[in-house]
Every structure is written in C-alpha cells, then in structure tokens.
Specification:
Blueprint (H helix, E strand, L loop, with lengths): L12 E12 L3 E9 L4 E3 L2 E3 L6 H13 L1 E16 L2 E15 L9 E5 L1 H7 L6 H10 L3
Parallel strand pairs: 1-6
Antiparallel strand pairs: 1-2, 1-4, 2-3, 2-7, 5-6
Length: 142
C-alpha cells in the first residue's frame, strides 16, 4: 500500500439535500428553510452521505431527519460545490414536494420556516443556495 500524496487534492465530502416545497392556499408556493444553531445559518435540509448510501436516499433521509416531513423528490437540481473546513464539499440536490409530517425542534435544527420564493431567497445565509430556488422555479410553477 502506498502512502497518499500529501499534495493531492482531498476527496470531496459528499452530501445531499432537497429544496423542499409545498403549496399554500394563501401564499402559493412555499419553500422550507431550516435554521441550524451550530452555524447560526438558514439553509435547505441536507447532510452527508452514510457509507454505501446513494445521494437520493441521503437527501430524503436528511429531509425527514431535519424537518420531520416526508417528501416526493423529482427533478435533480444543480450540484453545489464549495469549501467547508478547508475541504471541498459537493452537495447533490433535488426539488421535493412535502407530502406530510411535522417539525419538532432539536439540537441540530431549532427552527423551520415556510416562505414564498422571494422571502426564502432573502433569508438564505450562503451565496451558493439562492440559485437553487431558480432551479426549483424552472420546474415547479410558482
């Protein structure tokens, strides 16, 4: 076995998530955002893949774990790439309609909001996230 080349780029951390949405009779299309107290940020539900897990299964699992909602994923959205803690990270996303469930605050996610697209875009913390709303709106009519 040869030692790893210390100059070689690190393998990306693989994660997956969903832009979770629902229809409200009052406001129309609403997008789910979660607040993570550890990072004090607003983002979409997502998380790292477990060993042997495919990205879509991880995305559905993370939505349920972080939001308490079941979902029906459909169209694949662009993969987001960025650096986290000095390592490259790749997050695969799908748009997914919420099909039922209820949020319970926990240590990882303490708040959840359902917002119209323009408000969701303004609330997101990270610059790589708002373009995912454009991807959602390209396939789901507001």
């Amino acid at each position: 076995m040869t030692p790893a080349d210390p100059k070689a780029p690190a393998a990306p951390v693989l994660a997956a998530g969903c832009v979770l949405w629902r229809r409200s009779p009052l406001t129309g299309l609403e997008i789910c955002l979660i607040h993570r107290p550890k990072y004090d940020d607003w983002s979409f539900p997502k998380g790292k893949l477990k060993r042997g897990e495919d990205a879509l299964s991880a995305a559905v699992r993370e939505v349920l774990e972080e939001t308490g909602h079941h979902c029906a994923p459909d169209t694949r959205l662009p993969t987001v790439r960025y650096s986290a803690n000095g390592r490259p990270k790749e997050v695969s996303y799908w748009e997914a309609e919420a099909t039922g469930g209820a949020f319970t605050p926990n240590a990882e996610v303490d708040r959840l909001l359902w917002l119209p697209p323009s408000q969701a875009r303004a609330r997101l913390t990270h610059p790589q996230d708002p373009p995912l709303i454009d991807g959602l709106l390209a396939v789901v009519a507001a």
